[in-house]
Design brief:
The chain has two domains: 3-344, ANL, N-terminal domain (Rossmann fold); 349-438, GMP Synthetase, Chain A, domain 3, CATH 3.30.300. The protein has 13 helices and 19 strands. The protein has helices at residues 3-23, 28-39, 43-64, 66-72, 87-97, 126-140, 158-161, 167-176, 188-200, 210-222, 243-253, 359-366, 397-411; strands at residues 108-112, 120-124, 151-155, 178-182, 205-208, 233-237, 257-263, 267-272, 278-280, 285-290, 299-305, 316-325, 337-344, 349-350, 356-357, 372-381, 384-391, 416-421, 436-438. Strands 4-3-5-6-7-8-9-13-12-11-10 form an eleven-stranded mixed β-sheet, with helices on both faces. It has a four-stranded mixed β-sheet with strand order 18-17-16-19, with helices on one face. A two-stranded antiparallel ribbon has the order 1-2. It binds zinc ion. Zinc ion (ZN) binds at residues 273, 275, 277, 279, 329, 331, 333.
């Protein structure tokens, strides 16, 4: 490392400390060691901590929010008896979900873009954000991240980023020692400039949307460039990480990709360890699977967020499907493991025989179809799908037949596939690419 980059890291580390202490009121050094002690304690101690947090939250929700007061009828003792919180409840009863004990000026508004284009607005409080940030700091260390070390961020959500010309964004990047590549508009020129900049001042880690990371890795690979950066790890976040994303990025950057699973509504849900397993963030949330047997049968993930007292999320159906594992992980972490994460329930297709086909199947089959630039598969009904494709001059009739055949193999030979040739597939406001959308629900 050059003297310049050592100095930069030192200054940035001090700035992080000052920012957290004076702006946010968090002395993260001591808090991170407390988190470390808790999350490495025996499983029984972690469960006891969760249980006491859960009891406190349920009491608070019952006593101070109109929605839960009406729902619970009496102070609840068994969480599994509480009906899950659905997105439509938040849309329809937002005000009644907020706690009367938290003044309006202490509520922080947040929203998700929504995979089907329908945004969801909700509230969080300062403590939620402090705990959320601490958890991100804590778990990102699993991927080699540390305060002040240079990080390349390939991100798209405009609300997280501000306008790139905005001086605050520039200043933030400077003191945080970040370099930002806009994942929304990855042009060859921008990717080349970023590559050259990283060559001059190498990052220690990358934080990225997996689809943007994949595009960047593909650009580097196809142009015969060789990163000379000794990366400690890559953090993939905000979208489903597919195996072809991971494989190419790990090859091109010669390092491991760590999947960080979370949601704007509830924060960091699980983080991948060095052994490749997703450990649940039991400090901030209580996770359940809505399934007769969560260890063998995948089901909807239900999250109870333990720190957000402004608007309690209790058994919130986040919209992803998963399964638990009861095996202990060789990495030594006592945190329970999410064995399978099948991604969004709206991205998971259902067949007439009740089989679940997840988005990964289609991305796996289609990512190297010659002539195909982009695709989006929409399951309209159990019998009908729309396949939107952006193609180039190499596209052939054989490619079309191949894609239809693969869809019918998964969903049924008699499923009708309508192909639409389009100029582009618009990005939803969240900036997360949707390769697959299913409008079929469990009750169809
Ligand atoms: Zn592990």
């Amino acid at each position: 490392m050059s003297i310049r980059s050592i100095t930069k890291k030192f200054i940035s580390k001090a700035a992080w400390r000052a920012y957290n202490t004076y702006r946010k009121g968090v002395t993260y050094g001591s808090q991170l060691s407390r988190i470390d002690a808790l999350l490495n304690a025996p499983r029984a101690a972690i469960s006891a901590f969760q249980q006491s947090q859960l009891e406190k939250l349920l009491r608070h929700a019952y006593r101070t929010t109109p929605y839960y007061r009406e729902l619970f009828k009496a102070e609840p003792s068994d969480i599994s008896q509480i009906p899950p919180l659905e997105k439509r409840h938040i849309r329809e009863q937002l005000a009644r979900l907020c706690s009367e004990a938290v003044p309006q000026q202490h509520r922080i508004k947040n929203a998700t873009g929504g995979s089907t284009g329908e945004p969801l607005t909700f509230y969080q409080d300062r403590n939620y954000w402090n705990q959320r940030n601490l958890s991100v700091y804590y778990f990102d260390q699993w991927a080699g991240w540390n305060f002040g070390e240079r990080q390349l961020i390939i991100w798209g959500a405009l609300s997280d980023m501000g306008s790139p010309r905005e001086w605050r964004h520039q200043l933030n990047n400077f003191w945080r020692n970040h370099y930002w590549l806009n994942g929304f508009h990855l042009t060859d020129l921008r990717m080349r400039t970023t590559f050259q900049q990283m060559d001059k001042s190498p990052p220690q880690t990358i934080l990225a949307y997996p689809s943007s990371l994949y595009q960047f890795a593909r650009f580097i690979f196809e142009n015969g460039l060789k990163p000379r950066w000794d990366l400690k790890g890559i953090i993939s976040s905000a979208e489903m990480l597919h195996s072809h994303h991971r494989d190419l990025a790990e090859t091109v950057f010669s390092t491991k990709v760590y999947n960080r699973y979370g949601g704007r509504e509830v924060g960091l849900i699980a983080m991948e360890c060095e052994e490749g397993r997703l450990h649940i963030n039991c400090r901030d949330l209580y996770l359940e699977i809505d399934s007769p047997d969560p260890y063998t049968e995948p089901g909807d993930i239900l999250i109870t967020q333990l720190n957000n007292y402004a608007m309690p999320f209790i058994r919130y159906r986040i919209g992803d499907i998963g399964r638990l594992s009861d095996a202990s992980c060789p990495c030594g972490s006592p945190l329970p493991v999410l064995a399978e994460l099948l991604g969004r329930s709206t991205a998971t297709f259902r067949t007439r025989t009740r089989t679940l086909i997840h988005a990964g199947y289609f991305t796996q089959q289609f990512y190297n179809v010659v002539g195909l630039e982009q695709f989006q598969l929409i399951q309209e009904t159990l019998k009908h799908c729309v396949l939107k494709v952006v193609v180039n001059t190499q596209w052939t009739e054989a490619a079309r037949r191949y894609m239809v055949q693969k869809i019918q193999e998964a969903l049924g030979a008699d499923v009708i596939v309508t192909i639409e040739f389009v100029k582009e597939i618009p990005l939803p406001t969240s900036g997360k690419r949707e390769f697959t959308i299913s409008k079929v629900t469990a009750s169809d």
